[in-house]
Amino acid sequence: MKNRLFFIQSHAGLSLVELLVSMTVMLIVFAMVASAFLQTRKISVRNQLDVEIVQNARIGLDEIATTLRMIGYRRDVENGQPALIEAAPFQVIFHADLDEDEIPSEQNGTLPKDSVISLYEGPPEYEVPMTYTTGAETIRLTLDSSRDGLVDRRDINDSVGERSTQFNPDDMEIIQRINFNRVRPLTSGVLGPYDRTGHPTGILPMFQYWTVNPDQSFSLIGDDDGNGQLEGDERYFRAIVSQSILQQIRRIDITLTVQSSRKDPFMPHPYRQIQVGTTVNLRNTGL
């Protein structure tokens, strides 16, 4: 009996302290594995967001740049049809014959006399003074999806493209509108001048315009301090409708600020955000 008792005691299990230490080590290992897994998952999500927004931004940027290069193309110069109608921070309206139709239809061709075109900052509107002859359409590139002429918080979440990014409440959609009847969304997920509450976002304008000076140097519209860039309130410069200024525009900088449709897993800012841009030189804006 003594030998048996000695045998049992000599094969006793782990002490309570040893058991607690072992469990603690195991928990630490499991926590490290779980943390590594979650970190890898976050990296994967962020990479996916980057691919999504870069692809989306590039498609929109290429479309806009291609269209802007056509400003003034085949317009009725003889009768004074302007190349540009309005140059605003997040909207540009111009004439160009995108379709090059020999016999324009009601949808493809110049708007008839007395047609009224809404502008970026509201009345007065632009009224077509005559029926031009070359078939150049009136094209609008804008964030104004509500079709009231303004770009504001009412243009958020009011189109199919904007509602498709349901997890991002502030993004807008770039619209190409030809005359009054042809509307084509170019890209969504774009941040505009105001968020859904009406507060300014302070981002760079979608369009920045450079005019040529008599000495062939360039001036940036809205650049009040002359430092060659738009800052603060300069980014909300008033829309230009004066032909004496519009005819001097020779270059447009395009900047798209695009956000992800889902939240950024790392940053405190809710959504992943990038900017892409390019410059378009204009050849047909003067008379």
List the keywords:
single chain, 287 residues, alpha+beta, 4 helices, elongated
Can you walk through the features of this model?
The protein is an alpha+beta fold. The chain has one domain. The chain contains four helices and eleven strands, in the order ααβββββαββββαββ. The protein has helices at 2-10, 16-68, 160-163, 243-246, and strands at residues 84-88, 91-96, 116-117, 126-127, 137-142, 171-178, 182-191, 207-212, 218-220, 249-263, 271-281. The strands form three sheets. Strands 1-2-5-6-7 form a five-stranded antiparallel beta sheet, covered by helices on one side. It has a four-stranded antiparallel beta sheet with strand order 9-8-10-11. A two-stranded antiparallel ribbon has the order 3-4. The protein is elongated and about 100 Å long. It starts with a helix and ends in a 6-residue tail after the last strand.
